[in-house]
Amino acid sequence: MSEQQHTHYIPEDGRPRCRWCAAAAGDAGYLRYHDTEWGFPVDSDFRLFEKLCLEGFQSGLSWRTILNKRESFRNAFAGFDFNKVARFGEKEVERLLQDAGIVRHRGKIEAAINNAQRCVELVAEQGSLAHYIWSFEPVALDAPEHATETEASRKLSKDLKKRGWKFVGPTTMYAFMQSMGMLNDHAIGCVTRDEVAARLKKFKRPSKLKSAP
């Protein structure tokens, strides 16, 4: 969900937020996502895999659409436990194609299953998905990037593609890096920016042995 952060959106509470919040004005869930999730550092393998999958499903759609379907996605994809999703076969693909609660796109569904299989391989090699992902953390900047992709997102995208992952282009990976807290792209003046900065400062980068849940 990469967005330009030049101006602010000020909802009814009078507290300035990142401009992209205006896309769902009046949607309390969307605002809560901005205030409590977007940009906060994540070190759970399952949550990181969820974010990777959902960013892929978002391709060509709005993030609001995906966010509103997130619980259905979690139910459909076994809580994004990649060990379980990796065992999905054609029977599960057909089931998911009939699930109106998610985005019924065969290519994206099959990509999520493929990526789960690749994730199992990656964890066996790297020790944890979190350790691998955070190894691509860029040098912290004092201001938002105002970009759709960066050198760091291109590196992550290239490496994942080399490992056989799908729907992991550099723009998608930049949106993923923003959402999982690898960089603080909250707008300067946004009420959440300082909180995210403080959390990142205290955040312990994951080790190879970080547990999956």
TrEMBL record:
<protein>
    <submittedName>
        <fullName>DNA-3-methyladenine glycosylase I</fullName>
        <ecNumber>3.2.2.20</ecNumber>
    </submittedName>
</protein>
<keyword id="KW-0326">Glycosidase</keyword>
<dbReference type="InterPro" id="IPR052891">
    <property type="entry name" value="DNA-3mA_glycosylase"/>
</dbReference>
<dbReference type="Pfam" id="PF03352">
    <property type="entry name" value="Adenine_glyco"/>
</dbReference>
<keyword id="KW-0378">Hydrolase</keyword>
<dbReference type="InterPro" id="IPR005019">
    <property type="entry name" value="Adenine_glyco"/>
</dbReference>
<dbReference type="InterPro" id="IPR011257">
    <property type="entry name" value="DNA_glycosylase"/>
</dbReference>
<dbReference type="GO" id="GO:0008725">
    <property type="term" value="F:DNA-3-methyladenine glycosylase activity"/>
</dbReference>
